[in-house]
């Protein structure tokens, strides 16, 4: 049984126990037999909760912490009280040995009390989430006890010691509420062998409530940045070391910019991007109001050869909320990362910003705005970045942008990618108001391809949720994931490819003599063939029974610079959940990490050279594609199982409900970095934090009133 299934069953058992106990209390006065049956159902549901809790504890303490420390003990205690006090009385009534229990407080109060205690289980899980803090414990106990006292007064009319009991309940409620306002640490040194945290900054619920909220959410990083100065950013904007007592020289993030020259033999490739609103017409004739780069969606393809210098001048014509450029998956210097309020100010209408970095990583990448990114990317502010390997023994030459060709189908074709005759299609998938667009086409793409020609399909998911691809008519290889080549990939056929939000797969194969069709979520997106006819009907294979591709078991193992057995300098845990929290100065039902929402999630602090392990746990019922800026992570394990295939280096990994991922990286790119869910609506509702190198500072906090 999966962890996700256990989570759902635990919630259902909690609801069943609540309904059973409360139903028993409501019917006990008139229908003792029904009440007894409902109480029996509630008791069985409580026992089921014990089983699911122990099952979840076996999968990891994160999944059962609030159940073991709070909700299950009070539910079991209340159930035992109801069973031992009310149970015999109900049974005697059913057998005719005693009159109806109404208005017997000894029957009704235990039954209702067990219902209140059972209700605390799903309520705490859904509203408070992980972890159950002292504040959560006190408030929960106060609410349950207060409900029991109220019921007793309604049923019996009086209660000995009622004033003292009421005062105790109120004191617990006030204390629990007050604890939520106690300042908490704003930095997390990771608890590894090198961790030595200096206590220099703290934030509390009061700080968050008084922080000036951003009007677009995720203020300090994905939108505005100012709240970082008051919350999680204090650790590195103050100039005091968050990692160690040893002095570290301050380095402003503005000095961590890219070079001005390419590597020897490389060339400078210059691009101008103008962000503007526009009405675009899709192939079907549908018109879409979009935010665009240069009046098109996706934006102009940016291409280079390894060793080239990429220089992009971004101008904002009329995007009122501002715009930046983030190079998704590309390990640029921190000052080029495009995070407003952290590495730069947002580029407002009439302003410009120049990004400059060397193209050192070959592969498939993409770029998008990081200002109001949930809305901005959905509206069309994205494009592709393709870097080709430098030919062995040759220098990269050519006029910037001259090697880019626009396929009539709307897909971008790069002639840099390989040998003569190779068909290289860049296929970003995006959703505009419910319409799926592949490249810039909302109709299936038809492309002629000669038998035997090498084909590369670069799949890029620019949406917030996973997309599923299937390739019919040929065997193929997944040559690269997230821009990194896999070791000895094997042949694939009849497999469903689940691509995380922000992720990329490169599929390669020699063109067969038959037609090849790429399916996107079960619908035709691309047809390749020697005689492809635009507008011709496409046959769709039934892929419903195809197994899902698992990248952790694909390819051949190879040596890596570190493994799960290595000695780590920093260890960070992120437990992803949902709960009531303050994000950007306002209360919300937020997406949380370790029980907090941005900007109050402590900043993860590292030093250059540290070996860092990150454990990401998903307690929620939604998938979270996790993305760390500026670094590529090596997958160590998923749900305790180490990869059996090729080493998997990723910049975005899909943490599905109930999963636990362990990844690691070497801290070799100094700066200030975002670490967030790439379902950007989740990030906008709090699921984001910072990773900071010791001594790196930012002058941008407070910009635009974040």
TrEMBL record:
<dbReference type="InterPro" id="IPR002355">
    <property type="entry name" value="Cu_oxidase_Cu_BS"/>
</dbReference>
<keyword id="KW-0479">Metal-binding</keyword>
<keyword id="KW-0812">Transmembrane</keyword>
<dbReference type="InterPro" id="IPR008972">
    <property type="entry name" value="Cupredoxin"/>
</dbReference>
<dbReference type="InterPro" id="IPR045087">
    <property type="entry name" value="Cu-oxidase_fam"/>
</dbReference>
<dbReference type="Pfam" id="PF07732">
    <property type="entry name" value="Cu-oxidase_3"/>
</dbReference>
<feature type="transmembrane region" description="Helical">
    <location>
        <begin position="36"/>
        <end position="64"/>
    </location>
</feature>
<keyword id="KW-0472">Membrane</keyword>
<dbReference type="InterPro" id="IPR011707">
    <property type="entry name" value="Cu-oxidase-like_N"/>
</dbReference>
<feature type="transmembrane region" description="Helical">
    <location>
        <begin position="70"/>
        <end position="92"/>
    </location>
</feature>
<keyword id="KW-0186">Copper</keyword>
<dbReference type="Pfam" id="PF07731">
    <property type="entry name" value="Cu-oxidase_2"/>
</dbReference>
<feature type="region of interest" description="Disordered">
    <location>
        <begin position="209"/>
        <end position="245"/>
    </location>
</feature>
<keyword id="KW-0560">Oxidoreductase</keyword>
<feature type="transmembrane region" description="Helical">
    <location>
        <begin position="164"/>
        <end position="182"/>
    </location>
</feature>
<dbReference type="InterPro" id="IPR011706">
    <property type="entry name" value="Cu-oxidase_C"/>
</dbReference>
<feature type="transmembrane region" description="Helical">
    <location>
        <begin position="104"/>
        <end position="124"/>
    </location>
</feature>
<feature type="domain" description="Plastocyanin-like">
    <location>
        <begin position="277"/>
        <end position="390"/>
    </location>
</feature>
<dbReference type="GO" id="GO:0016491">
    <property type="term" value="F:oxidoreductase activity"/>
</dbReference>
<feature type="compositionally biased region" description="Low complexity">
    <location>
        <begin position="219"/>
        <end position="232"/>
    </location>
</feature>
<feature type="region of interest" description="Disordered">
    <location>
        <begin position="390"/>
        <end position="417"/>
    </location>
</feature>
<feature type="domain" description="Plastocyanin-like">
    <location>
        <begin position="582"/>
        <end position="692"/>
    </location>
</feature>
<dbReference type="GO" id="GO:0005507">
    <property type="term" value="F:copper ion binding"/>
</dbReference>
<feature type="transmembrane region" description="Helical">
    <location>
        <begin position="130"/>
        <end position="152"/>
    </location>
</feature>
<feature type="compositionally biased region" description="Low complexity">
    <location>
        <begin position="390"/>
        <end position="402"/>
    </location>
</feature>
<keyword id="KW-1133">Transmembrane helix</keyword>
<feature type="transmembrane region" description="Helical">
    <location>
        <begin position="6"/>
        <end position="24"/>
    </location>
</feature>
<protein>
    <submittedName>
        <fullName>FtsP/CotA-like multicopper oxidase with cupredoxin domain</fullName>
    </submittedName>
</protein>
